[in-house]
Amino acid sequence: MEFQHNLDSLVLTVKLVNKKSIKHCYLRVINNNEIQIRANIYFTKEDAKDLLKRKKQWLLKGLEKISLNKLENDEFLFFGKTQKLIDYKITNIDKFYRIKIEEIIPPLVEKYSKQMKLYPTSIKYRKNKRTWGSCNYKNGLNFNTQLCKFPIKIAEYVVIHELAHIKHKNHSKKFWDLVEVYCPDYKQREALFKSLL
């Protein structure tokens, strides 16, 4: 069964697949205008509409992730928004990200260092696949140049997170309590970050 569903300003095509062998209900974002629901034979169109209403925020995040990952050859991500390479006269995107992250991070580190009274011995930048920030035993901070792809509040959270490691070299309760003082919505920012990866 196939039907249309309005989600905010989006019109989505919903494909409902009913099978006797399916015990649970599975909701999946196929692309930026198609949703699939796989369920048992007793799961109706009304049940599907109710599920879509309840899972609205999850769907919006899934659709956002797909749109962020779907870039044309002449596009790139810059602080959470899709931009055209030609508008920035970019020939080397990694070099561009490095220049921009070196402009963005130091003021954030300065701001939160003063507030937290925690000061790094150095700040370095590199392109990593998985590590977005780190704090070494000498209290030197490292930041991933690819942070430029995401909304600025992600970079802000990573800065606070790494500064907190100057005081707590672990992820103990005391560490997270410290992070929460300066970033009360850190859990939401972490969830947003994970949804964009």
Description:
This is DUF45 domain-containing protein. InterPro entries: UTP_pyrophosphatase-like (IPR053136), YgjP-like_metallopeptidase (IPR002725). Residues 88-194 form the YgjP-like metallopeptidase domain. The protein is of the alpha/beta class and 197 residues long. The protein has 2 domains: 2-69, no CATH class; 75-196, Zincin-like (2-Layer Sandwich), CATH 3.30.2010.10. It has 7 helices and 9 strands, in the order E-E-E-E-H-H-E-E-H-H-E-E-E-H-H-H. It has a 4-stranded mixed beta sheet, covered by helices on one side. A 3-stranded mixed beta sheet has the order 7-9-8, with helices on one face. It has a two-stranded antiparallel sheet with strand order 5-6. Helix 4 packs across helix 5 (152-167) and helix 5 (152-167) packs across helix 6 (173-182). The radius of gyration is 21 Å and the shape is globular. 19% of the residues are buried.
Q: Note the overall shape.
A: globular
From the 3D structure, determine the CATH topology of the largest domain: Zincin-like
Name of the CATH architecture of the largest domain: 2-Layer Sandwich
| Secondary structure category | alpha/beta
> Which strand order do you get reading across the main beta sheet?
1-2-4-3
Into how many domains do the coordinates divide?
A: 2
